[in-house]
Amino acid sequence: MRIGELAKRAGTTTRALRFYESQGLITARREANGYREYSDDDARLVAEILALQAVGMSLDDTRPFVECLRAGHESGDSCTDSIDVYRRRLAEVDALLAQLTQLRTTLADKLRAAEARPDNPCRAATRPDRHEGILMSFDHATAEVVTVTDETFAAVVLQHQQPVLVDFWAPRCPPCHMIAPVLAEVARERFGDLIICKINSDENPDSARDYQIMSLPSLVLFRDGRPVRTMVGARSKARLQAELDAALRA
After folding, report:
1. Which end of the chain is more exposed for a tag (fewer CB within 10 A), N or C?
2. pLDDT for 139-169, tens place per residue?
3. Which structural domains are found in the chain, ordered by start?
4. 197 is catalytic
């Protein structure tokens, strides 16, 4: 079958299929007329990749499952390496859940303390002028995660002197919500050394396309306006900190 038919059957795009092929996950056969042909086995591999990405796995995570199917096994998780990926990802999810549970407890304690205090008059917070907005908040609130869009990406991310970690996310992505509090903690802890931004890939497809974002969440580290490291999938705070340390030392 041609790439368009494979994309239609798999429910994905031809661009995604070409990216999978460039990563060695699927292999087309070149016909005499120059067209690339794909088989039912390729369709099965793509279905496996998409199913695994839907539960938050990165493309690298899918490789053992793809190789397991290529080896002739009925299921991609019939091999030891695939089981190891499940175990590692579960351990990472458990770590994230523990962090979320701790965060919830802290927030609940703060809420109870706030509700127990007598009412006090409060002043409305002033907002920056909209035209200054994104750069003012970026300059003065860098201890927090900064929201960017396609329109503000270049000014906020590419032109900043500090390294910038961009979280490509979407509301429909459960792992994206799991890693959000981790990124908030890292933003506060690395205040002054690293800026963390987030961009909704569904609402801002141009930036996602420019940096070949195929899986969510994808964390892209920028230095001097150039992407130097991409990390795909939710991860624990300890793992993220270690990856950032390694990338920033390089």
Report:
1. C
2. 434 578 999 999 999 999 998 889 999 999 9
3. 3-84 (1.10.1660.10), 133-249 (3.40.30.10)
4. no
